[in-house]
Amino acid sequence: MHVTAINVGDLLIPLWRGQFQHAEDDRPSSWKWAVLRSQRVWNEHSRLVGSMTTYLPGSFDRPPRNPAKKIHSGYKAWEWLLYIYGMGPALFYGLLPQEHWENLCHLVLGVRLLQQHSITFTQVQTARDHLNKFADGFEKIYVQKRADRIHFVRPWIHAVTHMAADTTRKGPPLTSSQWTMERMVGDLGREIRSHSHPYANLSRRALLRCQVNALKALYPDLVPANAPLPRASVAFGEYVLLPRKDRYLYTPNSSESAAVVTALRAHGIEVQGQPRIQRRARLRLPNGQIARSYWKENAMTGSVRCSRNVSIQLPGHAAPVYAEVQYFFVGMLNQVEHAFAMVSIYGEPDDTLRIASFETIHACKYYGQAALQVIDIKYIKSVIAMLPHKFPGREHEGTLWFVVEKPGLDIAVFSGLEGGIGDLSLSDVS
Question: Is 298 helix (H, G, I), strand (E, B) or coil?
C-alpha cells in the first residue's frame, strides 16, 4: 500500500519539483527532470489533476484532489494510486524529459499489472521486467553515479523489484498487502465497546470474528441471501438493469435508429417504420460496479461523477473496446428477452502513444452520435474513466480521451487491435 502509493509520491514529486534534499554544489536548477519547479507550472498541473474528478466514476472511490493544496494535508494512498498510476503517464507526457517519462511508464505498467485481483504468470514476468527496468533506469538517470545523490534511492525502489517474485509465492499484493490488514484493523476497531479494557475487548472481537467465519465456511446457508433487487429492476444472469426507465416509449433519433436497424438486419430481421423502445438508465455489472448512461447523466445538475464509460470485451477479440453508454433497453429476439446497450464507440487508441508508453496510455478520439452501435449488455466488463487531455506536441489532434481503470480490476493490454464491432445481438422493438 505505502510502497507503491505514498512512498512513490513522496520521492518523485519532490524530485520533479526540485525540492528534494541535495548537496550544496548540486543545484535543483541543473536538474533537467525538475519540470514542476516553477510555482506556475506546479499550480497549473495541480489544477488539471483536480479538474479530473468529475470524469472519475463513483466506484473509483476517493478521487485525487488538487496536490498543490492538499498534498501535505492528508493525501490518501488511494489518491496517490489514481494520480500516479491512473493519470500519471498521460499528464506527465511532454512535461517530463522523454527518458524520465519512459522510466515512469515502466513503474506504472509493472504496478498496474500487480494490482490486479487475478494475474497470469506471463503478466507477472512482464511486471518483473518493467519494474527492474524502472529501478535500474532510476539510478542511471537520477543518481548519475554521484555519491551525493545516493539518498535519492529510497528503499522502496529496491522493494518493487521483489514484488513479482512475492506475487508468485503469495498471490496478488492486493490480497496480502497493507490494504487487507488496515481494513481488518478498521473493522475490528469499530467493534470495540469497552473503553476501560480496549485490547482485551479487541482480542475477544477478533476471536468472535474467526468463529463466525468458520461457521459460515462450514454452513454456507447461514450467510444471508443477497438483498432483494429494487422495484422495476430486471436481472439477466449476473447483470441487472436498474431504474430509471422511460414512462412512455421513446422514438430514437436518426443515428440511433440506424444503429438499431443495422443490428436487426444482422439477425435477418427487417424493420418496418420507426422503431420505438423503452430506455433504462443503469446497469449493475457482475463486479458490483454500476454503469450509468448519457441519457440520465446529461440531465443531472451539480457535481456529477461520470459513470457512463465502459470497457467492452467481444467474443474472440483480444483487444477491449471503449464506449460511452447512451442508454440501455430490453427487447425480444427469437422469442427470448434480451438486454442491450446503445453505445458510442471511441476510436482505436493512438498507436504512437500506446507503444511509446508501454501500453499505459490508451488515448482515443470521441465521435459521439457518429459512432453509435448496439451491443449485448454481457459484452460490458467494467466501468472505466475516460479523461480529456490535449497532449503536448499533439495539439493538432484536438482533445483525446485516455483510459483510467480502477486499480484492482483486470488491466487492458492490447495484443493487436481488432477492427469493428461484430457478432452483435439486438432486441425486437415495438
Answer: coil
The answer as to whether 89 is a domain residue is yes
Give the domain CATH number at 302: 2.30.30
**Residue 411, pLDDT score:** 53
CB contact set of 415 (below 8 Å; sequence gap of 6+): 318, 319
Lowest mean pLDDT: which of 2-16, 54-68, 177-191?
177-191
**Residue 98 forms part of a structural domain:** yes
Write the pLDDT tens digit of every residue in 157-168. Answer: 999 999 999 999
Please indicate, yes or no, whether residues 262 and 391 belong to a single structural domain of this protein: yes
Cα torsion at 15, 20, 22, 26 (round to 10°)?
40
Of the listed ranges 167-181, 201-215, 298-312, the least confidently predicted one is 167-181
In angstroms, what is the C-alpha Rg of the chain? 25
Q: Is residue 78 part of a domain?
A: yes
pTM listed for this prediction: 0.87
Provide the pLDDT for residue 269: 76
Q: Domain limits at 74?
A: 6-178
Q: Are residues 148 and 248 in the same domain?
A: no
Pairing mode, strands 321-333 and 363-364: unpaired
Q: SS in 3 state form for 321-336?
A: EEEEEEEEEEEEECCE
**269 plus 370 within the same structural domain:** yes
Q: Which residue has the cell 498471490?
A: 171
**C-alpha cell read off for 330:** 430490453
Q: Are residues 174 and 271 in the same domain?
A: no
C-alpha cell at 104: 515512469
On whether residue 224 sits in a domain, the answer given is: no
- The 10s digit of each residue's pLDDT in 307-339 is 999 999 977 778 899 999 999 999 887 778 889
Spatial separation of the C-alpha atoms in residues 324 and 330, rounded to whole Å: 18
* Mean residue pLDDT across the chain: 89
Domain count, the chain: 2
| One domain for residues 347 and 275 | yes
